Amino acid sequence: MKTRHVYYDEKTGRITDILKEKKDVGDNFIECDIDEVVDFLSMKKSFNEYIVAYNKTENKHVLMKKDNVIRFRKQSKVLYKIPYDEDSINDITIIYYVGNTLEISLDLSRLSPLYQTSFKDDIKFEKGTELRLFLKEKNTGTLLKEIIIDAQELLESGQLFYDLEDNIKSDNVELFTYQMFESYTWYKASVRLISPVKEGIKFDIHKADHKVRDKEFFYHLIVDNYYKKIRIHNNITNLNQIRFERDIDFFIVDEHDPNILYESFSLSEDQLKQEVIMIDCKVDLKGKTILYNHKYISLLIKEK
Q: Given this chain, do its domains 79-192 and 201-301 carry the same CATH topology?
C-alpha cells in the first residue's frame, strides 16, 4: 500500500503539508495510506476542515475531522447509578456542597482531542443535546428531583450550579443518569458555596505576592495546596487575645478577574486558632487569589 507523510503543527494540530518523501528536518508527521489523503491532494477536501490529533482508543495521532470532536456513547436506556468517589478524575464530576448546592462540571480535555489546540472554540454538542440527572432517596428510590442540563451550556461554561430544596439531604441521596459519557463521579464537599458577587460583600484582596507583616495585622495565614486539600498555616502568637463575632468567609477567585469564583469556605474562631487548618477543597491555587472579609488578617498564597 502506498503511503504519504502528513505534516502538522504540534501545538494546533493544523495540517501543513502532505508529501510523498520524508523531509530531512524533524517536523511532526504521521504516515497515512494514500487512500486516506487522496482527496486532499485533489483538492476535494480542505486542510482547514481536518487536524492531526491524538486518538486514545488507537493510541496514536490520526487525521480527524474538526467537527467530529465530542466523544460520547449512545445514551443508555437504563438508569446508571453515579458512583461516589472523591479522588478519581472523570468526564462528569458532581460536587454536593453544604447548603444544598450542586456543581456539575465537564472535563473537556478527556472528551475531545481539540481541547489543547487553537481549534477548541470549534468544539460543540449537537443542538438539543441534554443531560438528565436524577436525585433519588436512598433505600426507597423515591425521586426527589430531576435536573435537565443543556449540554452546550455546560460545555461553554465548564460548570453549572443548581440549588436544591431543603427536604433533600446529602446523606440520604443517590444520583442517577442516562449514561452518555464513559465516566461519572460525585462527592460531598464540607464547604458552603457562597457567591461574593451575589452577597455583595466588600473584601480585602491579597494576591500571592502579598508579604505584609505589619503590626496592624493580627493573623498571618499562609495558604498552599496539600495533596487534594487546601492547607492553612497559622503564624499567630497572640491567639488568646483575638475574638471574632462571626465566621470569616474566604473566596478563591481568579487572580485577574475576582468575579470568577472557584470555591469558598468559612472558618470559625476555633478553627482560626489551630496551628494548621485543612480544608476539603480541590482547587489548584495557581493563578488564583483569595478574597476575605476581615481587615486584620494578612494572607500569603504559597504556590508549589
A: yes
Q: What is the pLDDT of residues 219-264, one digit of tens each?
A: 567 777 777 678 877 765 555 555 566 677 888 887 777 777 788 8
79-192 topology per CATH: Immunoglobulin-like (2.60.40)
* Distance of alpha carbon 297 from the chain centroid: 29
Question: How confident is the model over 118-128, as pLDDT tens digits?
Answer: 555 666 777 77
* pTM attached to this predicted model: 0.50
Residue partners of 74: CB distance under 8 A and separation at least 6: none
The 8-class DSSP code of residue 84 comes to B
Question: Would you list the DSSP string of 275-297?
Answer: SEEEE------TTEEEEES-TTE
Nearest to 186 by CA among 264, 253, 284, 105: 105
Q: Where are the domains of the chain?
A: 3-65, 79-192, 201-301
- 125: Cβ–Cβ under 8 A, 6 or more apart, which residues? 70, 151, 152, 155
Compute the distance between CA of residue 294 and CA of residue 242 in angstroms, rounded to an integer.
13
User: Vertex 179, ends 173 and 185: CA angle to 5°?
Assistant: 50
Please give the sequence-ordered ranges of beta strands (E in DSSP) within 49-129, or none if there are none.
50-55, 60-65, 79-81, 92-98, 101-106
Task: Choose among 237, 229, 245: nearest CA to 283.
Answer: 229
Quick one: CATH architecture of 201-301? Sandwich (2.60)
For 32, the 3-state DSSP assignment is strand
Distances (CA, A) of 211 to 65, 77, 151, 273, 294: 50, 56, 43, 21, 17
Tally of CB atoms within 10 A around 49: 11
Which among 193, 153, 188 is positioned nearest to 168, based on CA atoms? 188
Please classify residue 232 by burial: count the beta carbons closer than 10 Å to its beta carbon, then call 0-12 exposed, 13-18 middle and 19+ buried.
buried
